[in-house]
Amino acid sequence: MQLRYAFRLYPEPGQASALARAFGCARVVFNDAVRARRDARSAGLPCPSLGSLSRALVTEAKKRPERAWLAEVSSVVLQQSLRDAEAAYRNFFASLRGERKWARIQAPRMKSRKDTRQSIRFTANARWSITPGGRLNLPKIGPVKVAWSRPLPATPSSVTVIRDSTGRFFASFVIDTDPDTDAARMPATDQSIGIDLGLTHFAVLSDGTKIDSPRFLRRAEKKLKKAQQDLSRKRKGSKNRAKARMKVARAHAQVADARREFHHQLSTRLIVETQAIAVEDLAVSGLARTRLAKSVHDAGWGSFLAMLDYKARRYGRTLITIGRFEPTSQVCSACGHRDGPKPLHVREWTCPACGTVHDRDVNAARNVKMAAGLAAAACGAPVRPEPVLAQREETGSQGIPSGDRAA
Hints:
It is a single chain. By secondary structure, the chain is an alpha+beta fold. The protein contains eleven helices and 14 strands. The protein has helices at 13-42, 50-59, 75-96, 179-185, 216-219, 221-232, 239-273, 284-287, 293-299, 301-314, 360-378, and strands spanning 2-10, 118-123, 129-130, 136-138, 142-147, 158-163, 169-176, 192-197, 201-205, 210-212, 276-280, 318-322, 348-350, 357-359. The strands form three sheets. It has a seven-stranded antiparallel sheet with strand order 2-6-7-1-5-4-3. A five-stranded mixed sheet has the order 10-9-8-11-12. Strands 13-14 form a two-stranded antiparallel ribbon. A hairpin with a 6-residue loop joins strand 13 and strand 14 (357-359). The chain is elongated, with a radius of gyration of 25 Å.
């Protein structure tokens, strides 16, 4: 199983300039590859191969005066940028054919120097290394200071250097985990729970535990509003506007980082304490288009469920997802009587069949757990199987890598 371990980088001024130059060169090569494919399609020609693009856009381009500056950065960075363009088109065509289970994606677009996120990737043949002093030595950039929050469990296969919207630099290492080590780290247990995700409480467990929603965005709204107002008053193109934009980006980054840390801590705690976890398949994208959109985005259910998924597969836990149309809030978890739909303001109700008084969320969590057990029994699969690790595809350079920060 492959995971990403992200660490903060602190480059010196000269190294930051070299990284900016590498970001720019990788962006130009990516755009040239997209343009070459568009021109071939317009002319009715077959799409150029990766090898022909490499010769034309990297090897031969360095010999031309208008592209001579491509030689100032590592050639591996340029080759990986071409591979990213190839992967983007491959995913686009797979989406058109319906082979991707996610929403349909658009054709690759040109990258801009004003994009909030820039990244370059170094593979093993780039001869990057970690010095005895703990610095990350990158070709044509030099040894960069790294804030090591934990030791790397294995030798990385590649490293991606990322600059986010706030100007922070990160090094994201791809690590192949060891199943035996993971199994020893998380011994098997006989506990199982059902989880009902919500807005008033972020999660309610089937054992009655309620985890409050931190509401990071709601708590930071006043600060974000003031920073955005200051930005709107600055003249476009001025240095003060650039400073104000950075303040807005930092305020949003603080919210995102706090939410991600909360998701990591909670998901890891659940994985450590339980062997089988049952959750509901929520229509997050649909709920994000309702009047509750801001609260749904603030909760970040999709990110939390994704963390539960990869951690369960890594440590041999079982994560069962039930259908989103299961009437978990309408059925009595004690006797099974279905009492019909209830408005959201009804937080407690009494079962007319057995007289049990239910907390709406706790009852839903218990029904999620029972529905997951019935679904597993129906297909002949045990609720608590022996630990089996599934392979996880390498995520490339998409998004800020969360890796295994809080696992």
